[in-house]
Write a structure and sequence with these properties.
Number of helices: 14
Order of helices and strands: EEEHEEHHHEHEHEEEHEEHHHHHEHEHE
Strand content: 15-25%
CATH class of the largest domain: Alpha Beta
CATH architecture of the largest domain: 3-Layer(aba) Sandwich
Number of strands: 15
Distance between the termini: 28 Å
Helix content: 25-40%
Number of domains: 3
CATH topology of the largest domain: Cytidine Deaminase, domain 2
Structural class: alpha/beta
Length: 394
Amino acid sequence: MKEFELKYGCNPNQKPAKIFMADGSDLPIEILNGRPGYINFLDAFNSWQLVKEIEENTGKVCATSFKHVSPTSAAVGKKLSDRLKKSCFVDDIEGLDDSPLACAYARARGTDRMSSFGDWIALSDECDEVTARIIAREVSDGIIAPGYSPKALEILKAKRKGSYNIVKIDKSYRPDPVEHKQVFGVTFEQGRNEFKIDADLLKNIVTKKKALPEEAKIDLIISLITLKYTQSNSVCFAADGQAIGVGAGQQSRIHCTRLAGSKADLWHLRQSDKVLGLQFAEGIGRPDKNNIIDIYLSDEYEDVLGDGVWKKYFAVRPEPFTREEKREYLSKVTGVSLGSDAFFPFSDNIDRAYKSGVSYVAQPGGSVRDDLVIEACDKYGMVMAFTGMRLFHH
């Protein structure tokens, strides 16, 4: 296939639209089902690069959930605890523990379910039946993977009344080292960002504390590669083999850190006894449960707990999760990793990160206030590595 005509571009009024190879060669994809659109393909090609690089640099299968050209999460194929399975709404999936890829997607989708609603999915390896069964019951726009088992393809083709977007990519495809794009009729050219993100990047530890466990290295690699394909400015919190909070596209870095930190906090709080013990009213589906939990954990909890409304959502009225209780719960969280796509200009980012249990940090360094940022890390007993490499993505 030399080119593929799209229904329209970013918006319905933007026509004509198509994808093609500038040198006239075949596209490195096959469209196995559906008719992906312009934004679908932006998500597909960015998300595929992300999972491919994480697998190459961790040795573990990877999945990501993308929305509007930024990942909501990315995860490697670690088994989920019973508590995390329930939090991610996959405790009823048979065979989950036997499929690392399904574990990876369950983690990625379950991290920030509100942002992942209607996501684009990328898998580093062939989609298997268990992974397809998880995807089949979620609201999603499409998927890209290097292959699909016959059963997985059958399951996915039945999704969205047969119109689900399924793309197969050539795993051996390597793009030209120089890339181009147009803005306002002007062509931009740059070398592709082929910078390798692996454990060697984390050797320049600038804090008093130097110990960086292997699991933290993997989490930092996941965080940094996730940032490489996230709209900048961006900050990413990671733990247990997955991104747990992504703050993307903010003009101020502290706003990135606050946004990502609040998402990471919700990921932890959703695994608390209070949330896992919620007894929902009969007939409440997964998307509604997720929205109810989100409100329950917010300052607007009365919207679902108030007199005259709680019976719409719960079989048994739960006690509020107070600010003090949430603060106490989160105060016990440690071992979280934090990556930033550019240097921290102020130590307030570290102060905020500490509140979300961050113990390990990776950032480029190079700020005139690096000494104050290092001092803040030392105060909290964090380990921080300077990578020396900015990871802006636009």
